[in-house]
Structure formats: C-alpha cells, structure tokens
C-alpha cells in the first residue's frame, strides 16, 4: 500500500552520530555513521502524523512537498528522536498504533528508497491526494 504525506520543516534538524564508538573510529567521511533526527510528516491540514528519517538530507525536497510512502510493517514504539514524540498521545513508555513505511522516489519505474519513517495508523485516513492505494512495486 502506498500513501502520500507532506514533508514538514527540516531546517532545524541535525545530523548526529549513532555509533557509540564514534570518537574512537577513524575520522574519514567513509567511517562515520550519520543519523538524521525525525522530520515531521503532515496531513493537508498540517496535523503531525509521522516522523521521517531520510537517508540523505541533501536529497530531500523542500518542506510542504508531498512524498510517497510504502507501508512495510506495524510498530508500537516510536524511535527515540521521533517527531511523533511531540504529540501528547504518543510515548516511548506505552504502545502506540504505528506503521513503518519507506520513503521512495520513482526512477524509470523503480521505487528508490530515500529513507524510513514511522507514521500513526490514522495517517491512512488523513493522507494527502492521491489517497492510499495498493500498488505493485519494484524496489531498486
């Protein structure tokens, strides 16, 4: 199943090392493991319904752009740096109705992964146009 949500502001989101041994590793760019904090995913009415963790922030479209997401699994616990933790009804201490999705961009008929996200189940009802649908995909 695919759906579309709007990308929130990502100007204030930073990159941090996710590797606890980062300080002891070589300092070459190839040896660093970078992680992007959660970027809000929004409905057309600007309700926060997801948290995107891009593979490369430089590849992100501007805020307000509709991005395509492919549903891959259910989840109950938001990531530690999830944008969803801004909501009163989402907590790391209690189960939430979440879904894992892939953020993809289509290139010559192949869905290219650009990041992962967690979204609230209710995002399926509040998704932007086109509405959620079943789609055959080839991942590249």
Short description:
With 140 residues, this protein is an all-beta fold. It has one helix and nine strands; from the N terminus they run E-E-E-E-E-E-E-E-H-E.
Written account of the structure:
The chain has 140 residues and is an all-beta fold. It has one domain (2-133). Helices cover 3% and strands 43% of the residues. A six-stranded antiparallel β-barrel has the order 1-4-5-8-7-6. A two-stranded antiparallel sheet has the order 2-3. Strand 7 and strand 8 form a beta hairpin. The longest helix is centred in the last third of the chain and has 4 residues, at 123-126. Residues 13-35 have low confidence and may be disordered.
Layout of secondary structure:
Layout: E1 2-7, E2 15-17, E3 34-36, E4 39-42, E5 48-54, E6 66-75, E7 98-107, E8 110-120, H1 123-126, E9 128-133
Antiparallel strand pairs: 1-4, 1-6, 1-9, 2-3, 4-5, 5-8, 6-7, 7-8
Mean pLDDT rating: 83
Adjacency order of strands in the biggest sheet: 1-4-5-8-7-6
Number of helix segments? 1
Helix coverage percent of residues? under 10%
Major sheet: 6 strands, antiparallel, barrel
**Whole-number count of domains:** 1
Distance between the termini: 17 Å
Radius of gyration: 15 Å
Beta-strand content estimate: 35-45%
> What order do the helices and strands follow?
EEEEEEEEHE
